[in-house]
User: What shape does this take?
Amino acid sequence: MIYYEKERSGKNDYLYNQYDVNLNFSMHLHNNFEFVYVYEGEMKITIEQQTYSLTQGKGCLILPNQIHSYATPEYSKSYLCVFSNNYIGSFYLNATNFISDCPVFAFDRPELIDLLSKPNLNKYLLKSIFYYIVGLFDSNSHYLTKNNTNRDLISKILNYIENNYLHNITLLSLSKELGYDYNYLSNILSQQLNIRFLSLINEYRINHARHLIQSTDKSITQIAIESGYDSIRTFNRNFIALVGMSPSDFKKNSK
Assistant: This one.
């Protein structure tokens, strides 16, 4: 499953903090910076199909519109922060043109995280902390040219799917909506996300169906319809393929 987190995109003065034990999160992207720090254990971070190991005392900065995911092999205790581009405006202007081949760095000021977590912290203090993080990232990085066209296009694709997956959409309707060639979009999905359009749609729909099964008392047939399927047979087949059991069995196990 690949998420475009639109609620974390396009907002000025946006700041989100969370603390986790054994963080695992599937592929996602948004138009903000993301900083993660590991207090204990080890976490695997995959950014743009490259996996990095983040161990105790290490931080990692993910740039806007980079596809990334988290996995904890055994144990990790971590902090995660998402913050908007306007906090580090001068760096953001450069960050749109490159990627780093080494986004992991030693972070020697964990007490700054306590400040970030304080409500209503002075905006200049916030900026100073974020620029400190960026300074460590910059000192450790070797920059590579970024393909802005593909990154922006992937954001548009995922945003369109997020808003329309419950309707009868196709790769052809997507190509017409975005104004790109059908085959070109198919290649982008295959090469950049390693997935076909229909498979991606089914992931969104089945994930929606799982939520409905767990949170409502609606019938399986009604849930199939509300998840974008006009065939209960197709719905059952896709559900089993992605979840590993039938919708009925999943419903029984969810109670």
Remarks:
- The mean pLDDT is 90.
